[in-house]
Amino acid sequence: MSGHVPNLQSESHVPAEQVRMILRHVQTLPTLAPVATKILAMQDESGVDLGSIARLVETDPVLSGRILGLCRRADKGVKEKITSVRRAVVLVGFGAVRSAVLGASAFTALGEKPESQAPESFDRTGFWRYCVCVACTAELLAAQNKSTLKVAPDEAFVAGLLHAIGKLVLDHVLPKAYLQVLALAKRECSPSSAIERRVLGLDYHNAGKALADHWQLPAALGEVMLLHATPAQDLPETDHKNLVALISGSAAFVRGLGLGWSGDFDSPPNIPLLLPGSNVRAPDMTEFGEKLLRALADRLAALGLSDAGPEAIAIESMKELARQNGELQRQVRDLSLAGPAGKDTSPAPAQSQEDPQINLNLDNASQTRAARCLLTVTSKTQLLAMRLHDSRDRAGALAIVEAARELESILQSSAANQTPDESLNSAA
To answer: By CB distance 3.0 to 4.6 Å, which of 100, 151, 321, 364 could disulfide with 70?
Structure first.
């Protein structure tokens, strides 16, 4: 799949030269740390000179600390403080150390915000929190379902950490244009990939795959970056199909938790089974939550993203879901009050200065946008209600459900004033 570029002519009028320009710019992105490149070339523990690896890692104190922190494995119950790479290999194995080196190096290479970038553009801290949570979820699920998934937990962790890194790639290459992509995705309650293809000519999946080729990452990681949002039943039969499906399910689960910022604004997909025909289900927070939050707190601290404990992270996630709900509710009310024939008159984002071909003047009927917003807010409302129910705050859960019903009645009363043709168009 190297160099894979999809046929996007039906989705975008962006010139092919722009797509090639974006892919060429990927070659200018920062490279992985030398220690990561060296360790990636090692396939197993035999013949590995742990002393030289330890000396390499320890020349960079920041990278060293991140690697050792990422080596904590919830499924192995590692409580002992890991203070050296040698000790890490003994406790968690070479594979976990190798994955931690790759994850820490990738975070170091693309984790920092470029100095020239506007502060309001891309929420890097929120994005990495989301990716770390996907990584922890995938790692725990891989450990709990070893016989069915046949995915190593350390491989699942690094795949989850890097699965959506193509968004950072697009933000690095075209920061002004990508800010507009995100604004439009939020306005339309859409996944970012659909807007990326429409505006830029390719999406973050292909940008991530290009980065994987640039960094010479294992084939499994490139495949995850390219295919992780593909429905499991549509995945090609490859050696890494289970890993891709695992990351897809983990990402959908995490988006519903309000942990971090994914850069997508549609309703999280419902993935009851990670693999068709299997009994590997998406996790339930009642059984899964404590272990996930504990692992997440450890890994966020290792990367310097948060020093909050598990309980504080849980509270933060519920507040974030409530904030998203409030924002969507206001949007639905505004659109409904515009009237059944009202068009959205909010200005489209300014055209990118980087490429005059980019055009974001994409109007939608206000009722169609209201319906999309309502679908998203209803999904988030149900997730928040379940979280509150799990916390035994049933009164709070009922209040959230009542708020969703009120929004639905607003939309229905507005739709009742439409002509049959207008109503049909809105439903479409």
So the answer is: 100
Average pLDDT, rounded, for the chain: 75
Residue 146 counted as domain residue: no
Residue pair 388/397 in contact by the 8 Å Cβ criterion: yes
Assigned domain for 420 exists: yes
Rounded to whole angstroms, the Cα distance separating 244 from 168 reads: 20
| Gap between the Cα atoms of 428 and 415, Å rounded | 13
Is residue 266 domain-resident?
A: no
- Give residue-wise pLDDT tens across range 133-144: 999 999 999 999
Q: How many domains does the chain have?
A: 2
Residue 57 or residue 225, greater confidence: 225
Residue scoring higher pLDDT (5 or 149): 149
| Residue range(s) defining the domain that contains residue 58 | 31-110
pTM (two decimals): 0.78
Could you tell me the pLDDT band of residue 158, with boundaries at 50, 70 and 90? Answer: very high
